[in-house]
Amino acid sequence: MKKKLYFSLWIALVSCAQKTEPDPQPKPAPVASFAFAEGEYYAPAALTFTNTSQNATAYAWDFGDGTTPVTEASPKHIFHQKGTFTVTLTATGPGGSQRMTKSLTVKENPEYRLELKLKDGLAGGMLGMLANGKSALAFEVTLYDKAGNPIPAASAVKLYDNGSELTSSVFKTTAEGLHEIQAKGYGISSNTLVVNARKDAVFEVVRIPLVFHLMYKNDTWTTADLQQMIDYVNKLYAGALYDDTSPKRDPNTVNTYIEFYLADTDPTGRTLPKKGLDKVSDDPTLYGTGSDPLVVKNALAASWNPTKYLNVFLYNSQYPNAANGAYPTLPADKPLKGVGTGIASSAKTSYGVYWPGDFRIDPVNYFPAFAHELGHCLSLLHVFQEGNCNQDLDYCADTPVFLFEEVNKGIVRNACSGVKFLGTNIMDYGVPSSGCFTFDQRTRMRHILDWAYDLPTKINQTRK
């Protein structure tokens, strides 16, 4: 009996040691809830979200439009784009967290219109560029109201390249191909501009010797004068007159890989007394332009073998700006739009540059003009058109179409497309600051160097 009492007491003590206090009152779970005004929404749609959650102390709102979540209790938010958005409220409290979602649709705003265009006043004026990460196109966006009046475009308007948002209105790329540029904002999208970004190319440098035939009485010409001009021209042909930050640099500007130099010797191998200069006559006659039949006759007599030299004919002209360059000739099986086909000339040719003798050492006006005439000798045509916006007679897709009447209006040109641009192409007229050849212009010149007759190029050293 005594042993049984001790055993019962031990059981009672163990039972008391294992007993715990009852749980406290559990925290109520939060109930996420919110409301907003019902109706039709047009971008930009400004909405207030009223938080009606219970048992919560912290809130997180995700508006479903890619913007950063906010933690206000009852926030205001602007939906700048059209679309259907899922708004999520996460309410958190001592008893846990809960989410609530609601969807809303924002429609395109009929009151606005977005217009995207190239920025006015820069060189180029075309939707083309080099895919080198340096060439740049600048865009501008205009927002119009229902009446067609331009209004300030807020920061809500963004630019996109093939659907990806751009961080700047100045577009650069290293990605070759077509880039669809579009502006979006206020629930609407602008027109799309398609930019062709091309990878630049490297070519073998072609060096062309020049000889200046002095066909009238003038003893003031010096080799130094000619060399100064050639140095400037080579800078233009290398695409090095303007750097990539200059508004005067066309985003299609390329290095042509063509260099000119003054001939050292005549066709017999005799060293020229004045490098690059050939004294022909003291003809005192004052001619008109280089197309004067007597000038052409004199040039034909003075010319040197065109497969060894590019001839420049200095003649006495009453018009100091009456320069011109003859166009090359191609074989019939190597055609190029705007260039004639035929056969090679004899050792004498009238092909070359005709340059008025009243030449001045003037890099601003005359040196670009000489580069221009050399461009004609290499197949390039004028970039302007004569009275018709519906044709592009320089056969280069990366030069803007504009009318000849724009030439005398200053450096800013009005393209037929409506874009205002700086006329800095060397094949323009009357632009002292011209200094650019484009990708397509180089393509034409390289075709001429590869195949044309009457040029001191590699192929003409082997032709029979």
Short description:
By secondary structure, the protein is α/β, with parallel strands linked by helices. Helix content is 14%, strand content 29%. The termini are far apart.
Report on this model:
This protein has 3 domains: 34-107, Immunoglobulin-like; 113-198, Immunoglobulins (Immunoglobulin-like, Sandwich); 206-461, Collagenase (Catalytic Domain). Helix content is 14%, strand content 29%. The chain is built from 5 helices and 30 strands. Helix 2 (223-237) packs across helix 4. The N and C termini lie far apart (139 Å).
Summarize this structure as a short list of keywords or feature phrases.
464 residues, alpha/beta, Immunoglobulin-like, 5-stranded mixed beta sheet
Overall shape: it is elongated
Count of DSSP-assigned helices: 5
The CATH topology of the largest domain is: Collagenase (Catalytic Domain)
Query: Strand portion, in percent?
Result: 25-35%
CA-to-CA gap between the ends? 139 Å
CATH architecture call of the largest domain: 3-Layer(aba) Sandwich
CATH class of the largest domain: Alpha Beta
Total tally of structural domains: 3
Structural class: alpha/beta
Please compute the radius of gyration using only Cα atoms: 38 Å
Q: List the uncertain runs.
A: 1-18
Largest sheet: 6 strands, mixed
* Strand segment tally: 30
What kind of assembly state do the chains in view correspond to?
single chain
| Corresponding CATH superfamily of the largest domain | Collagenase (Catalytic Domain)
Helix content bin? 10-25%
